[in-house]
Sequence to fold (312 residues):
Amino acid sequence: MKAKLIVIGGPTGVGKTALSIKIANEFNGEIINGDSMQIYQSLNVGTATPSLAEQDQAVHHLINYVDVGEGYSVARFKADAEAAMTDIIGRGKVPILVGGTGLYLESFIYDLSLGGKEIENPAFRQEMTDLAAKEGNDAVYAKLQALDPKAAEAIHPNNLRRVIRALEVGTFSDRLFSDQAETHEDHVSPYDLLLIALDTDRQLLYKRINQRVDMMVKEGLLEETQWLLAQNLDPDQQSMKAIGYKELFPYFRNEATLEASLEELKKDSRHYAKRQLTWIRNRLDGVHWFNLVEYPERLDTVLTLVNDFLAK
Fold:
């Protein structure tokens, strides 16, 4: 039998955290973070990481998990999420994957892989293999980061065979490896899934996002951004590209006013929310949609859905 997995997705500001905690408490569950920026330590306000009080209400995995100076690939997330799920199930608990990073959710629940044209260049493969033997896997991985950053994000540096394959495709075909079609059209998952997505009226969602940014400022977003800048990280570091911080960097460099930077943050957050919704609608099958912002009474329907799913 497939292991049961509850997945809660949706844009920022629609109540994913509250719902996941409610389900965890009602059904003996534990939460696996599926947000690519909540992975990072010390980036709590700008990423809307569940508060310490919220974390005390249910067990959370993969939150504040890695240092801001580390890279964190989709491949590593898959491995870490699988380990967390095995641990949760092994203790008789229900795993609940929660987040807004579509590629994280999709890659895990469908065991996502990237395909491509059959481009073969044995001499190139040998050259890259020799480079890895001489200078280490990171030397080859750096080439992929330069050629195809999106593919590099999805592949672990130590997965040398796949790194070389991505370089091979990007170098000798007419498209980058990351531009090739994903190979999970059948949407078969190794898990027994219950997919729940939250949404609300678009204008109301945007209003809530704008208000959330204003609240983040009161909760210490500016101080958190200053701290991140003080780490003197490479601008290409994943944590430095997080929505919530990168929009404020110009303000601290005296290149923009605070008002303009916050407006940019609100705009980017709204655009990101739209992309989150589009991803779920286009990439996930069998999703149960709920609007708990405007219709909180429908929580009972959600809980009944979860109960029936777990009883099967």
Summary: Residues 258-283 form the longest helix (26 residues). The radius of gyration is 21 Å. DSSP finds 13 helices and six strands in the chain.
